[in-house]
Amino acid sequence: MSFLFHENTLKDHHILITGATGGIGYETVKVAVQAGARVTITGRNEEKLKKLKAECGNPNQVFLHVADLTSNEDCEQLLSAATKQHGPITGLVNSAGIGGGDMVEKLSEEDLRSIMELNYFSLVKLTQAVYHQMKDNQKGAIVNISSLSGLRGTHGNSAYSASKFAVTGFTQAFAHEAIEHKIRVNAICPGYVDTEMGRNAIKSKGEREGRSYEKQLEIAKDSIPSGKLTSPVEVANTIVYLLSDAAENIVGESVKISGGSVMR
């Protein structure tokens, strides 16, 4: 897919992108840099973050900071370092997240807590901290990565789905507060994305149903009117659009990227 944005689309913007080593986060960083933003990237895998920074080209445009978002201390250090390097944060992409879980009768408390901790609690805590900066400047855009599973439940997916419903609900409620300070909050709700996490989800569903990955992938594609999984760069392009001034009146939306599988 060719680059869709002008090189000055996000000029003078400082975008913080969490989960930058994951498929969606990784591509969003590259698109945001191409669109002219100063970008802070974070995650727990320093080697992958360094690889991503090198792929972005201009090293001065990308600031790397390793952080565990479930740690309050790490989050404080992340924001302090990012602001010192690139100035006030004008855009936040909450892309960090994990999949997993099991059928309700087999779901462990440990799995439930770890999924909610990263997918929801850490997202809210980091957003609170960034929001204080944005309020001071009366400007900003926040994009939360939810899921189609945050709009409707699916078989064997209760823990992940609950965490993403929480993200969608938080997005809608917070959007009412934030827009009073000219800060836009929206969510992206993709279906199956061709990333490691997306492929693992298909594999897990196949295992529960006694099918091979290849057969379950075929079934997944057949259930999508477009007949294909979403590419991570498609999601990244949508995120960068929502961060840009072109989306100035898009507020509190849950933008579906479903290939036509969810039309409502």
Report on the structure:
- With 264 residues, the chain is α/β, with parallel strands linked by helices.
- It is built from eight helices and seven strands, in the order βαβαβαβαβαβαααβ.
- The protein has helices spanning 23-34, 46-55, 72-86, 109-137, 158-178, 196-209, 213-222, 232-243; strands at residues 14-17, 38-43, 62-66, 91-94, 140-145, 183-190, 254-257.
- A seven-stranded parallel sheet has the order 3-2-1-4-5-6-7, with helices on both faces.
Write the layout of secondary structure elements.
Elements: E1 14-17, H1 23-34, E2 38-43, H2 46-55, E3 62-66, H3 72-86, E4 91-94, H4 109-137, E5 140-145, H5 158-178, E6 183-190, H6 196-209, H7 213-222, H8 232-243, E7 254-257
Parallel strand pairs: 1-2, 1-4, 2-3, 4-5, 5-6, 6-7
Helix pairs in contact: 1-8, 3-4, 4-5, 6-7
Q: Which features does this protein show?
A:
seven-stranded parallel sheet, single chain, 264 residues
Shape: globular
Mean pLDDT: 94
How far apart the termini lie comes to 27 Å
The multimeric state of the shown protein is single chain
Helix content: 40-55%
- Biggest β-sheet description: 7 strands, parallel
Give a count of the beta strands, DSSP E runs of length 2 or more.
7
Helix/strand-derived category reads alpha/beta
Biggest sheet strand line-up: 3-2-1-4-5-6-7
CA-based gyration radius: 18 Å
Low-confidence region ranges = none
Helix/strand order, N-terminal first? EHEHEHEHEHEHHHE
Individual helix count: 8
> Beta-sheet strand percentage?
5-15%
